[in-house]
Amino acid sequence: xxxxxxxxxxxxxxxxxxxxLTDLETDISNExxxxxxxxxxxxxxxLEQHYWTFxxxxxxxxxxxxxxxxxxxxxxxxxxxxxxxxxxxxxxxFLNPRYEHYHDQIPQFEERNLGNSNVIFTSVENAHxxxxxxxxxxxxxxxxxxxxxxxxxxxxxxxxxIAHNWPKVMNVITTRANNEISAAxxxxxxxxxxxxxxxxxxxxxxxx
Length: 208
Fold this sequence. Notes:
single chain, alpha+beta, 2 domains, 5 helices, 7 strands, 39% helix, 20% strand
């Protein structure tokens, strides 16, 4: 498991900086200040890239209004802790992501801000949402996720921390960040529970 201070120190290593932080939250060095300012964005960016098993949630959506004066039939309040809405489904009957046509069959929805409320517009009745939670940065993160965040953090903080050398290493840091995130996603998929799903009707008919 990795805390945000561990993530920050790994990001420093990616940038070739040998100094280490004891506590990111209280560190007063330039490295601590810069990494602290980019930590939230780096975590959110990596969360947005994948249906992380430890950050995926479902919720019954509270209705905001009927007939919201657009092309959708209903408006619902977004869950307050959501970062990315992945899917909206009637009564929680979410689609099976195993099949290639999965994304084509997700009911359409649109996110908007109305005053002080974040709202989902959709034509789905009794809507439930599957979403990625905006996790606190004070959590102890899974190591593979932390490595992905460290790669992204190094990419975001690099121009401020190694400005004199950044043009020379930017491509290397960018590639490393993308590789770390891809490796984290692959490990999360490998660790996720493997379910057996019934074959869709088209497959059953094909082999009869």
